[in-house]
Amino acid sequence: MAEATTELAPDEQVYEYQDDRDAKCPFAPPPGLRALNDKAPVTRGKIWDGSTPWLVTGHAAQRAILSDPRVSSDDKQPGFPYPNQRRAHRQDAGRPQAGRPGDLTRAAAALADDLRAARCAVRGPRLLLAARVKDGDLTLPEATLLAIILLIAGHETSATMITVGTALLLENPEQLARLQQIDNTKDAAGAVEEILRYLTVAQFGQRRIASEDFEFEGVDIKAGDGIVVPLPAGNWDPDAFPDPEKLDLTRKATHHHAFGWGIHQCLGQQLARIELQVVYGTLYRRVPTLRLAVDRDELEFRPADALAFGIRELPVTW
Ligand code: HEM
């Protein structure tokens, strides 16, 4: 378990990262997280293991920290702010001990568990990866990791954008009507960027660790301090997006952080954009009577600590 990386003053109040979304506004980031935008762009938050990494919530600060070479994404460093216990354990399983090679078998088994948990049903990529392993281009753990990335990073996020995006649009009929008037997928591009900003389905917070001491936005960050970058907060920062709670499909929102920022930003973002432009540009026009088959209150949203925001089921009719 990670040590507390930063010292708090005895009376210092910290935000318990991260509270649930407000059931009345499930599409908005959790209220406590939003409140940080009024406080300061960089504060401290308490995470699941009791440690208190820096939370970088301001849009400009997120952009700066995610492209800062003094910050690393190396999750093997002590003090790394893991998102949950499972990840921390998985890291331990594969971490080489001093003087001993890392246990690839255990790491691979942990990864394979994840893959099973993700219920791999994607036959094409699986066969493709199997062929690369057979040819010796990839090891089994590498192929497993790639499969997980494709499934969770690539499939889960895009699928969620379609289901939650549909629920969001059905709740904003005037915006939906705007989308229904679009007659080609290219014109849906701006709408897609705004929906990406609004929902920021990669809600978990990008994890980093400081490699050296430095001053940032008025705080002293020390080498080994954990850093969490909650992307929904940056995308709802009123300095970057005035009236962020307003869904406005005509807004120029391309500077959002839904795909992260810096060298680790999403590798699949152009593919995701194309997928979403096709769906948003055609579905509601082709099925104009699309509506929820249940009350909105009956929709079960994933909790704020789930890797990607989402809805467990979206019953619709038309
Ligand atoms: C709406 C859909 C998507 C969203 C919101 C999304 C979001 C993100 C975010 C926020 C990151 C940054 C992680 C970080 O900074 O640590 C990321 C990374 C990544 N995404 Fe996506 N993603 C989406 C679709 C896809 C697709 C379709 C693919 C591939 C087919 C993909 C592959 C990846 C990969 C490989 C990375 C890791 C990049 C790296 O660490 O260097 N993503 N994604």
Q: What this model shows, in words?
A:
- This protein has 318 residues and is of the alpha+beta class.
- The protein has a single domain, classed as Orthogonal Bundle (Cytochrome p450), CATH 1.10.630.10.
- 40% of the residues lie in helices and 10% in strands.
- The protein is built from ten helices and ten strands.
- Strands 1-2-3-8-5-4 form a six-stranded mixed sheet. Strands 6-7 form a two-stranded antiparallel ribbon. Strands 9-10 form a two-stranded antiparallel ribbon.
- It is globular.
- About 8% of the residues have low confidence.
Task: Describe the structure concisely for a colleague.
Helix content is 40%, strand content 10%.
Question: Secondary-structure map with pairings?
Answer:
Blueprint (H helix, E strand, L loop, with lengths): L14 E2 L14 H9 L2 E5 L7 E3 L2 H8 L4 E2 L12 H10 L9 H14 L5 H12 L5 H32 L1 H9 L7 H11 L6 E5 L3 E3 L2 E3 L4 E4 L1 H5 L33 H18 L4 E2 L23 E2 L1
Parallel strand pairs: 1-2, 3-8
Antiparallel strand pairs: 2-3, 4-5, 5-8, 6-7, 9-10
Helix pairs in contact: 3-4, 4-6, 5-6, 6-10, 7-10, 8-10
The structure holds protoporphyrin IX containing FE.
Protoporphyrin IX containing FE binds next to helix 6 and helix 10.
- For the record, the CATH architecture stands as Orthogonal Bundle
Specify the biggest β-sheet: 6 strands, mixed
CATH superfamily, by name, is: Cytochrome P450
Ligand roster: protoporphyrin IX containing FE
Low-confidence stretches: 94-112, 118-122
**What's the overall average pLDDT, rounded?**
86
In the CATH scheme, the class would be Mainly Alpha
Structural class: alpha+beta
- CATH topology (level 3) name: Cytochrome p450
